[in-house]
Design goal:
The protein has 6 helices and 9 strands; from the N terminus they run βαβαβαβαβαββαββ. By secondary structure, it is of the alpha/beta class. The chain binds glycinamide ribonucleotide (GAR).
């Protein structure tokens, strides 16, 4: 089927924080009739995540599964999978989701879970990437969007963009400039994934031309 005739891919988005990346994705979808995806559910591990409120304002279904409400991580992840699959997402976007997901989760969406991380991977993996880059003293950091595998911030890279570090940067000012880049890069990559245009070969991701 030519790309333009495919039904939009059903996207699930997971957030733990303010949800500015979710907002950027929703704006990009609204602004682009050829985007090829629609957000059908937003999920979180935190009932107070700002991203949930953004989703509700946009009329999108939300699901919340708190780790503390389950016996263990396995039970929590099973509940999250069940809550998401009720909305039949074909792609899962991690947009500031701060929990690790296991192979059990990933096997439901093979090569269809995408993450945005605020550093140039493989540098500064983990939850404090911006602070770690500042402390290390790098002059260039940035944004990486990648497919998710079972290791933390490790899966095949789809796209990266650099952000220069200023001498007077704080974690907040640097993160703001990285987020501004993420707000463009994540929607671009989600669009390619939604359109089925990412070809994954081991660690290498190629973009094929639109049909
Ligand atoms: C983003 O900068 C994202 O890259 C980061 O959390 C922020 C969420 O912002 N994710 C990670 O650090 C994951 N390791 P947002 O809630 O405003 O979109």
């Amino acid at each position: 089927m030519p790309d333009a005739e495919r039904p939009p891919a059903r996207l699930g988005v997971l957030v733990s924080g303010g949800g500015t990346n979710l907002a950027a994705l929703l704006s990009a979808i609204d602004a682009d009739p050829d985007f090829g995806g629609e957000v059908v559910v937003v999920g979180s591990d935190r009932p107070d995540a700002g991203g949930l409120q953004r989703a509700e304002e946009a009329g999108i279904s939300t699901v919340v599964e708190r780790l503390a409400d389950h016996d263990d991580r396995r039970a929590w992840e099973d509940a999250l999978i069940a809550a998401l699959t009720a909305h039949r997402p074909e792609v899962v976007v991690l947009a500031g989701f701060m929990r690790l997901l296991t192979g059990e989760f990933l096997s439901r969406w093979p090569d269809r879970v995408i993450n945005t991380h605020p550093s140039l991977l493989p540098a500064f993996r983990g939850a404090n990437a911006v602070r770690d880059a500042l402390e290390y003293g790098v002059k260039l950091t940035g944004s990486t969007v990648h497919l998710v595998d079972e290791e933390v911030d490790h899966g095949p890279v789809i796209a990266q963009r650099g952000v220069a570090v200023a001498d007077d940067d704080t974690e907040e000012t640097l993160h703001e400039r990285i987020k501004a880049v993420e707000h463009e890069l994540l929607p671009e990559c989600v669009k390619l994934l939604s359109q089925g245009r990412l070809v994954v070969d081991g660690r290498h991701v190629r973009v094929r031309e639109a049909l």
